[in-house]
Amino acid sequence: MTSLTPILATLPRPADKRIALRVIPAAERALRQGHPWLFASAITRQSHDGRSGDLAVIFDRKGRFLAVGLYDADSPIRVRVLQAGQPATIDSSWFAEKIHAAVQRRAPLLATDTTGYRLVHGENDGLPGLVIDRYDETAVLKLYTAAWIPHLPDLLTALHHIWQPAQTFLRLSRRLQPGAATLGLTDGQQLTGSPASGIVQFRENGLIFEADVIHGQKTGFFLDQRENRARVETLADSCRVLNVFAYTGGFSLYAARGGATYVVSLDMSRPALAMAERNFALNQQDARVRATQHEIVAGDAFRLLAEMAENGRFFNLVVIDPPSFAKKDTEVERALAAYARLVRLGLQVLAPNGILVMASCSSRVPADIFWELVRETAVIAGRPLIELARTQHPLDHPIQFPEGAYLKCLFARAP
Questions:
Q1: Can you name the residues that pair with 386 across neighbouring β-strands?
Q2: Which pLDDT score is estimated for 340?
Q3: Are 172 and 143 in contact (CB under 8 A)?
Q4: Could you tell me whether strands 262-267 and 65-71 are parallel, antiparallel, or unpaired per DSSP bridges?
Q5: Annotated catalytic residue 239
Q6: Pairing between strand 315-320 and 240-244?
């Protein structure tokens, strides 16, 4: 295996002694049904205090084994379950088995000329609080709980046992960054491989993309929209296309390959739009991409959509893929209002018989509520939608528990 960065050798190791926990009956039932989280409020008895990363064993009221998982001393999700039903030794071999199973689930992607995808999708692949994304020969690990930090050496050993990436980078959720810094870990830090810039190239359904795995959103690219981008390609022939919240131009490039005559990529981030231009440049060998006029527009999406409507700019296909407007429950009402406003604005610039693609990536907004909001908003706007498709999670973003579902996208035609 490629040598690890020296800082990993200084990380705290999990305690040898496991924490024993007893829990309320409702938590027992949830764990038996496969839920991957145990909340602090559900714990009735704890053998001793622990540190984040220690292993916790959960027992039922009769003292029988329920599950073992990663203890997080600072999170309301106190234990993220690794194994339920039968005891297990949690080590690099155990991690390797989980990663191998995740790799096998993604095997169909190998036939699609795709080298950028999610390799491990957290709880849904049995490794809660951990994401591993693949960008060709680069691996990006993103941690959502400090409980993974003491296990990083074993985790990297396991990953390299299954797949040998040329380099590995670490991304940290915002909540983790202050505490991780005290241990010498930083967001975007390279963990293995020869020093690299962090700008990587990969293929998605035959298209070439760049991603900034050090500074980019998520791990550098929105890999979860791959199938929706491919669907847009099938709808874009001879269209004028507007891609709102375009980021690095994924939907835009697919639309161009689909035969769009004119594509506008609109986003607040100028660096992201600059990468969108580079992504178009990387695919000039495709005659349809080469023939598409691509315009980038930087600024606030709400304001610019209103200006386009006032100026009579219309598009045959409008894609609106906003960021998560509801990161906590108190933000849901505001998020729904923002989605409704975007639907209204999108319809104002959508030509007659045009197609609206409206997405949401907020787990706190259920799919049925989102679908209904889009439908009702269009009716009130006087442009009732004819639904073409409703889509959710792709192959490499499986969902195994309700809270894990976040992505939904509606394809509809407006008269």
A1: 413
A2: 97
A3: yes
A4: unpaired
A5: no
A6: parallel
Least Cα distance to 56 among 10, 90, 95, 29 occurs for 90
Neighbours of 297 (CB within 10 A): 17
CA dihedral sign, ordered 55, 61, 65, 66: negative
Cα–Cα distance for residue pair 155/132, rounded to 1 Å: 11
For the chain, which ranges sit under pLDDT 70?
1-4
Predicted local confidence at residue 6, as pLDDT: 86
The confidence score (pLDDT) of residue 328 equals: 84
Phi and psi (nearest 5°) for 396?
A: -90, 5
Confidence at residue 98, expressed as pLDDT on a 0 to 100 scale: 98
Closest CA to 141 of 36, 4, 257: 4
Are 397 and 124 in contact by the 8 Å Cβ rule? The answer is: yes
Would you state the pLDDT for residue 2? Answer: 55
Annotated catalytic residue: which of 58, 260, 361, 374? 361
Residue-level pLDDT at 5: 79
Q: Tell me: the pLDDT tens digits for 203-242?
A: 999 999 999 999 999 999 999 999 999 999 999 999 999 9
Instruction: Tell me the one-letter amino acid at 269.
Output: S
Scan for tokens 């319809």, then name that residue: 347
- Catalogue the long-range contacts made by 94-99 (C-beta closer than 8 Å, 24 or more residues apart): 94/158, 95/127, 95/151, 95/154, 95/155, 95/157, 95/158, 95/159, 96/157, 96/158, 96/159, 96/161, 96/162, 98/125, 98/126, 98/127, 98/158, 99/127, 99/132, 99/158, 99/159, 99/162, 99/163
For residues 33 and 71, the answer to whether their CB atoms sit within 8 Å is no
